[in-house]
Amino acid sequence: MEFEKVTQCPLHGSGARPEILVGCRLEEVVAAWHRSGDEEGEEEPLDVWLIDSQGSSVHITTGSDWCLIVESSSPHEGYDMDSWGRVEVAPVGVRTPFAAHLGEDVLAVREQFEPKTGRIALEVTFASGRVRCGSWAGALRLSE
User: Fold this and answer.
1) Is 60 inside a domain boundary?
2) Residues 6 or more apart from 94 whose CB is under 8 A from it?
3) Digits of tens for pLDDT over the chain (144 positions)?
4) In this structure, is residue 91 part of a structural domain?
5) Which of 93, 126, 128, 89 has the alpha carbon at shortest distance from 110?
C-alpha cells in the first residue's frame, strides 16, 4: 500500500507555491509581534512578510492546526486587543534571521511536510546562508 504525500494543509489548502520566491531579491521584511503592556513580548514573530524588489509580498505564518501557511498577501496594520495586548506590525530591523539577507536573491526553497498537517517548514536559501521557517506547537519559529 502506497501513502500519498500530503502537500497541503487540510484546513488551509496549499497556499502560494514557495518557488515564486526563487530569483527574487529580498528588499524588506515586515513582521507582526504580540505585545502586552510595556514589555517587548515574544522574540518570535506571529507572521513575517517577505517583500521583493517588485513590491510583491509573501506572507508566512502558522495555522490553527499547526501547519505553516505560505500565501501571497501584503502586511496588515497592527491592532489593539484590549486587555490581551496588541499586535505590532513593523519592518524587522535586525529582529529576525531574514534581516541578514536583505538585498540578496533567493536561490532556492525547500519545504517539509507532515502527513496529517501538510507543510510544517520552509527553508529559504540565499548566497550567504539559509533561514528556516517552521511551525512548532502552533507557533512560528525562525532560525538560521
Assistant:
1) yes
2) none
3) 344 455 665 555 566 788 889 999 999 999 998 888 766 655 789 999 999 988 899 999 998 778 898 999 999 998 888 888 888 999 987 778 999 999 999 999 999 988 877 888 999 999 999 999 998 888 899 999
4) yes
5) 126
